[in-house]
Amino acid sequence: MKLGPIIASVAIGAALVGAGTAFVKNLTPYITFSEAQKTNGTVQVMGGLEKSSVKLISGNLSFTLVEKKTGTRLPVVFGHTKPANFEMAIEITAIGHYDGSVFQADNLLVKCPSKYQGTETKSYGTK
Amino acid sequence: MILGYSLLIIALIATVAANVLFVLSRGQGKEGLAKVAQTSVSVALAGIVGASTYLMYLIGTHQFAFKYVAEYTSKQSATRYLIAAFWGGQEGSILLWLFWTAVLGWILARKGGKTTANVWPIFGLIQLYLLGLLILKSPFKLGDGPIPTDGRGLNPLLQNPWMVIHPPILFLGFASTAIPGVWAVHGLLNRDYNGWIKHAFPWTLFSFATLGFGLALGGYWAYETLGWGGFWAWDPVENTSIVPWFLLTALIHGLALQAKNNGFRVSNFITAILPFAAMNYGTFLTRTGILADFSVHSFSSLGMDAYWVMLSAIILFTAGPVVLTIVRWKEIPKDKVSASPVSREGGFAFASILMNMMGIAVAVGMSAPLITRVWMKQGSALQADFYNQIGFPIAIVVNVMMSLVPYLGWKKGDVPAAFKRLFKPYLAAIAVTLVMTVVSFVTHHRAPLMVLLFATSALAVCANVVLILPRLRTKTAQLTVGGFTAHTGAAMVLAGISILVAFQYKKEKIVLMKDSAQYVDGYKLTYLGHSKQPFDKTNTMKIKVEEGKSSWIAEPSYYFAPWEGKDTLFANPPAINRHILGDTYIALGGDTNEIMDDPDRADTPNNQFSLKVGEPKTIGDYTFSLMNVSFDDKAAAAFRTRDEKVFNALPEIQLKAIVSVKYQGQEILATPMIRQGKKSGTYSDVVKIPGPRENVILRFVPPPTPDQVQEMQGAWLSAVEDAKKAGQPGTPAFQQALIPSVFLKQQAETYQQLATFQALRFETWNAPDPGEMAVIELSTKPMIWLVWLGSVLYSIGGVIAYRRRWNELVASKE
Known about the structure:
A: 127 residues; alpha+beta; 21% helix; B: 814 residues; 27 helices
């Protein structure tokens, strides 16, 4: 057997394994609030913003998300800069983990209500 | 409305006519029909240009009866934003896409020569698809109800000069991805297995250059305007543009290979249709709302009818050519592979495969929310780190290939000889990498992976520049530098990214008080004030930034734009100081009003006092009376049991006080609240009360914990024990010894009262005027110009290569 195809197959195999691993490692499943409160790893939750709950506490953005289907409330804390147009959000996606009492968000995706092209609201993350 | 639709329908009929006439003109003696077909193409273009002009006219004359005009323009819109509104919404952007498609189609008909009659009908199908889509989702729909007196206007976040430039160029790139595929299908249909690439090649390069430039513009816009400091987020809308670009790059290398030695004859057909397929796929994902929950960039949904049209088109334009390739498989000549894998040909082959894989990987990543729905209920998002993790090794490989392959000979590459010729570039690359390594050690930014990426990028840049320079001397050789220029550009972008990842720095939430300088990591920052009211779009904050001897006045903006009457959009465009070593980037980092409300701010309170219900207290100009204390229901029930254990077992209690505050004849009722949780800690409200400059705050101080009460009581009891040493309780000696510690008794009693909520403790403080504060984010972006210069270079490289291949095509008189 020629060496070339062997090397190529091994390389391709390694590449696929590498990409697949990276893919699975970076998945953040969308789950319900109650599931999130039981999970340890990084997950993704989505809910409406309880506008009256938005506060800055010790410099960190703190707010409560309300799950659309169940009405469950989840307190969230986000350590980075408050995303622009936060209070206008009809929906917020938070990526992070639950620490026992509050959801520590690493990333927030804020969805604004108007329908137009390219809402340039960016998520603010850990980098 | 009728005019708009009519123009589109005229274009539709003309396109169908062109298709039919071109097909018929292939018959014997029917060549004259081709001329009529050409006229049809012009008529179709005229119709589409007419419809576009009509839309622009409607926008320019503020015809708010039309739904699209009312949604994206208003009477106050500046002219350039009226222009931008053309593509501000779904329907208009599809019209923009169709516009460019029609223009390119007209050029295709003119320049196709003998092949036009064979090729154009294939292209015509695409034009038909877009026309059909546009008739379904038309910007010419009238609104329901009465004609509004004014329109909504373009979203304030899009009111930016870039909105005028970036979409047209990007959409030209989008439209042009169709053409290589059209030539490929022509090649398959008409059994022209070699000639099609001569035509497809220049078009592919044009598409690569335009799309790549559009991408760069988008990134630059994001960096300069949005205040988050980045230029690429791997968001689905962004990915929709970059996946076709990777696939075009793969096609370029595949075509070069086939041009050289007829390799990849079969796979090039598939590679040629992938860019358009990917573009349609991404457009479909982002515009139909499927990814609505997974991106902030998603458009509103297109609607079910358009959904099916798009989906059918994707299937037809992708599956069709694949089936055709399979059908023609046996016929397609497959030359024996004559070159060694280690050769320039091998390099091209590998490059084509690798770029296809990168494009597919990003497309898979972008589809993660859909793919994961197979085994996860609601699907899962994919963090952007995925793209960085797969991109890094690929970037290294790409850099190495871009350095080595241009030095390999054809047929069989002499690797040792190539290394010899690479000696000087290698030295140069090592030199700059050493500089980077030293800097990384000195600045404590150890990033060995980024040093590796930089090293390989530097090598690729030097290796390609060495090949470009001698060729610039002669006119004929000049046109051959396209590939090397593009490589230099791409490697430069990667070098820039490696430096940014290694060295960029960001400090958030820097609170500056007016006119008082603060030192932050080598920068001296002084907030000088803001220029206008925050609701004025031209509002800027002036911040003096001094670093060493240099100083500049940063003027980042922050403004609230009224939108829809009630809501306000907040924007924070940054101030950027550009310097050859990098950019200093300052953006607003927070709302100063909220900083003021943060109960944990480090100002010192000017009064602390406790209140009992029914016992008002006057402090300075203020009279405070505690009217009521109430718990949340669970805590109230526990409190009623008078059992400390039950009360303390609660995970969280909420306590609300109603305090009447009288100040200079005014009375307000303040309702500060405290939340005390076992795990979540204590959060207490602050309330603004009337005062000088309306910025006095009343803060509810948390009651002492049972431990603190015990500690205080313990302190009193020890004092009593100590006093007993002086004399028996009741004796004057005892009393004397106790006098210094009597306050402990008072404190213990107060603590007891506070802990049992018979009294509550408050403090007031003067908070600064929010106008006197600025909260900023400071970032440094070292050598970021490498990214911009690199992206310009790869586009220029594409244009040069386009010119070369175009000349070749003309010379071959196909």
